[in-house]
Specification:
globular, single chain, Rossmann fold, six-stranded mixed beta sheet
Length: 290
């Protein structure tokens, strides 16, 4: 009689690998600013090791989503997991530990105006580690070399151009080699050369550090070229997601209009208005008689 084959249960390593497929997992997220709802049941997952773009029109909640992931805000309802940890349930100490695994490039760079370029980048290392200065110095210079600004370490933020400031902010965001890097509108206000350079650095650093990156932007053309996965938000939910090619080929009216930057579609340019003769009588206007 043949023996029944014994099937070993999944190893702990295999189980951990399966569990860690996604760095960020969001389910049924609801959030409002007072009476203004922002998210109405949003669900998305950010694959580990990928560069993910979160796109949407201005005011759709892209930057708010980053604050929720980082624990700066708490959802009204729903779950937010980062590296398998429920962020809204963390106490201050646990949230502080989790944030040490995250890097953030702010929308307006967020450099400390009274600190030099060197001290701006060294700041997270000095605050979050016990590394001696003789170790911090080469680490900071290495990150500056990575973004092409090693020679600018003595400069103050006021002496930097817009593109240089973004590169310094990028170096500070990745100085701790974070598990998750988040970029809030990294291309806004940049000239084409600086924009292309920042995009290239985000891609290269993500791959070199084996990190995961979330890029929040409304710059469709640059984001599509940069990322592995695209998420489009509209009306408080995920309107569509997939690879750039999949979304560019989508026949959804909103996604098609947004990604191809078309003037006609579900999103109207004109704000709804009453008939013109109604608007001519402005509140408080003084009527004159002949």
């Amino acid at each position: 009689m043949s023996e029944t084959p014994v099937i070993d249960p999944p190893s702990a390593a295999a189980a951990a690998k399966s569990a860690s497929e996604f760095v960020v997992e969001i389910e049924d997220l609801h959030f409002s600013y007072e009476r203004r709802p922002i998210f109405k049941g949003l669900s998305l997952k950010v694959p580990r090791g990928k560069v993910v773009a979160i796109l949407g029109s201005s005011g759709c909640g892209k930057s708010t989503l980053l604050k929720l992931i980082g624990g700066q805000l708490s959802p009204t309802r729903g779950t937010i997991k980062v590296d398998g940890v429920l962020v809204p349930e963390l106490d201050s100490e646990a949230l502080y530990r989790l944030r040490r695994k995250m890097g953030m490039m702010f929308q307006v760079s967020g450099l400390f105006s009274d600190l030099s370029v060197f001290d701006n980048i060294a700041f997270p290392l000095r605050e979050l580690t016990d590394l001696p200065e003789e170790v911090i110095k080469p680490l900071v210079l290495m990150k500056l070399q990575t973004v092409g600004l090693r020679g600018a370490y003595r400069l103050m933020p006021s002496e930097l151009s817009g593109g240089m400031g973004r590169r310094v902010a990028l170096a500070r965001a990745i100085v701790m080699d974070p598990m998750l890097s988040m970029y809030d509108e990294p291309f806004a206000g940049l000239d084409p050369i600086s924009l292309g350079l920042i995009a290239s650095l985000i891609r290269q650093l993500n791959d070199a550090l084996h990190s995961t990156s979330i890029v929040v932007s409304y710059d469709v053309s640059e984001s599509i070229k940069l990322v592995d996965h695209v998420v489009v938000i509209e009306g408080g939910v995920v309107k569509g997601e997939g690879t750039p090619d999949q979304l560019l080929a989508s026949d959804d009216p909103y996604i098609h209009q947004f990604l191809h930057q078309l003037p006609d579609g579900p999103v109207q340019f004109n704000y709804p208005a009453a008939p013109l003769d109604t608007d001519l009588r402005l509140p408080g206007a003084v009527e004159t008689t002949a």
